[in-house]
Design a protein that fits this description.
alpha/beta; Protein-Tyrosine Phosphatase, Chain A; FAD/NAD(P)-binding domain; 15 helices; globular; transferase activity; Sulphide_quinone_reductase; transferase
């Protein structure tokens, strides 16, 4: 007997025997649902046998037989009724458990988000993507999908999505492209560090989405519920279906604030802030301006995260502001990093350590934030140093800048496109999906081992555009991505350590060292960040102009 938990009320299993009832009772189950018709298999016990043993053990039962491969809407409704009426916990079974898991999935339509349903069944060992359309349609079989169809569908209108749409349009102006994203506003997220440092106003980092969609690209203002790559289909909220010849996936990642206990309740007050949110970055600067003394903590969660340098950028700019106001000596600064190094590319670390020393900041490695008590100004960390027993420590704070834990979006993690860790599974050179030849990905959502930065997306977009265009023309991939990413580390107001690197930490400088030596703080790099990169983003990258981003041609066949 193999029991698989779906949620706190229901577990499912393959066929059980009368001899299993005593154990089922001992495990705390109070009811059984049989979803397998009698006579389906030669060695199958009848429901009457199961029912007799169950009744003698004090369990309630329900016989809801479902034909294999044919789960009707009325079957799902009957299952929902049984879940409501029977005492729990409940064990439902069929030949393999799949029918029972399917019935539960359909019964939860409209009660739980689709990704949550898919995640719970996936965790139990059942893939429900095949009925995702029905779940999205309220658990009912769609009678009219109203399919729209495009040559290329792009999921996500962030930096990667708009850029690759514009680059594709530049290569193939007549291409029918749809861009799917529910957001009204597009944000220049690299600017939020500067907002939190008092350099930019928040408003300059936001524009309406409609003003940025490339001309001739169809904008579908909706959220994605699921993918059916075997059917070349994207399912939208409300069960609308968009078909594609080729798919590009770039919805970014999910900031998982809820993973830190107490964080959501105190964000934006009690001295708790984050430059990872548009509405909170101004609060960061407000706190910095008001602080005259006390304890300041800056956190960094386990990788991967968006812009790995951003947590320490906030520390440097805050410390510089306190130094300029003459209050730095009154403030104890602590940088709590879940990892074991200050920065992942060693060549940039010496310059950063000089600033850590100058600001008298304490580095606390292997410290992962797990709980915040905002009203009492306490932050609790799990400390997991190598070869030691994990422990928890709690620090008082007057100011804390939090970088939230980050994951792939829910609808990605439960999709057939994801790898075991939940990220879109691509070839790191061509950015083409490893299992579906007509799918590509770029940006933060894919599993290539590169830094998740806007600069990386700027380089990836032309590569994907080139390779999609080549595929349309019947050719093999033509462009390769070398893992380029950039992190302008704002070590003080007016100076930046310009980290540029590719796969394996290989240095990838864009400028000669006599102009900008990325391993040393540079005022010219600051001017690049402050004055050149924002217009480059809005007026070049998002419009398909590939300045300093022309794709590198493949010289050897990519695996």
């Amino acid at each position: 007997m193999e029991l698989r938990t779906i949620d706190e009320r229901l577990s499912v299993s393959p066929q059980i025997a009368a001899d299993d009832i005593a154990r089922i009772k001992a495990l705390g189950f109070r009811s059984l649902i049989c979803n397998r018709p009698d006579g389906e298999g030669a060695d199958q016990p009848t429901f009457e046998e199961i029912d007799r043993s169950a009744k003698s053990a004090g369990l309630e039962t329900r016989y809801l037989p479902v034909q294999s491969g044919l789960v009707r809407d009325e079957d799902a409704a009957a299952f929902e009724g049984a879940l409501r009426e029977l005492p729990g916990p409940i064990l439902a079974y069929c030949r393999t458990g799949t029918r029972s898991a399917t019935l539960w999935s359909l019964s939860q339509a409209g009660k739980r988000p689709l990704p949550d349903i898919l995640q719970k069944t996936k965790a139990a060992g059942y893939d429900m993507n095949g009925v995702a359309r029905r779940i999205a349609n309220g658990g009912k079989t769609p009678t009219e999908t109203g399919d729209a169809s495009f040559q290329v569908v792009i999921v996500g209108a962030g930096a990667g999505g708009i850029s690759v749409a514009a680059s594709l349009k530049a290569r193939k102006p007549d291409l029918e492209i749809a861009l799917i994203d529910p957001a009204d506003i597009h944000y220049y997220q690299p600017g939020w560090t500067m907002v939190g440092g008092g350099i930019f106003d928040a408003q300059v980092t936001a524009k309406t989405m409609g003003s940025l969609i490339p001309s001739g690209v169809h904008w579908i203002k909706s959220a994605v519920a699921a993918f059916e790559p075997a059917n070349n289909a994207v399912i939208l909220d409300g069960c609308r279906v968009v078909k594609y010849d080729r798919l590009i996936v770039c919805p970014g990642l999910k900031l998982d604030w809820s993973k830190v206990k107490g964080l959501e309740e105190t964000l934006g007050r009690n001295g708790v802030t984050s430059n990872y949110r548009y509405d909170l970055a101004p609060y960061t600067w407000q706190l910095v301006k008001e602080m005259k003394g006390g304890k300041a903590i800056f956190t960094q969660p386990p990788m991967p995260i968006k812009c790995a340098g951003a947590p320490q950028k906030a520390m440097y700019l805050s410390a510089d502001a306190w130094k300029r106001r003459g209050v730095l000596s009154n403030i104890d600064i602590r940088f709590c990093n879940a990892g074991g190094v200050l920065f992942g590319v060693k060549e940039y670390v010496p310059a950063l350590l000089e600033y850590v020393k100058a600001y008298e900041a304490e580095l606390s490695f292997f410290h992962n934030l797990v709980e915040i008590d905002g009203p009492n100004r306490k932050a609790t960390f799990q400390v997991s140093k190598p070869d030691t027993t994990p422990e928890t420590v709690t620090y008082d704070f007057d100011f804390i800048h939090v970088c939230p834990p980050q994951t792939a979006p829910d609808f990605i993690r439960v999709s057939p496109l994801a790898d075991a860790a939940g990220w879109v599974d691509v070839d790191q050179i061509t950015l083409r999906h490893k299992s579906y030849d007509n799918v590509w990905a770029l940006g933060d959502v894919m599993n290539a081992p590169n830094a998740k930065t806007a600069a990386a997306a700027r380089k990836q977009a032309p590569v994907v555009a080139d390779n999609v265009a080549a595929d349309i023309d019947g050719r093999s991939p033509t462009a390769q991505y070398d893992g380029y990413g950039s992190c302008p580390l704002t070590v003080e107001r007016g100076k930046i350590v310009l980290a540029e690197f590719g796969y394996g930490g290989a240095l990838k400088p864009s400028f000669p060292s006599w102009l900008i030596d990325g391993t040393k703080p540079s005022h010219l790099a600051w001017l690049l960040k402050e004055r050149m990169l924002p217009p480059l983003y809005w007026k070049a990258m998002l419009r398909g102009h590939e300045w300093l981003a022309k794709p590198e041609k493949i010289t050897v066949a990519a695996e």
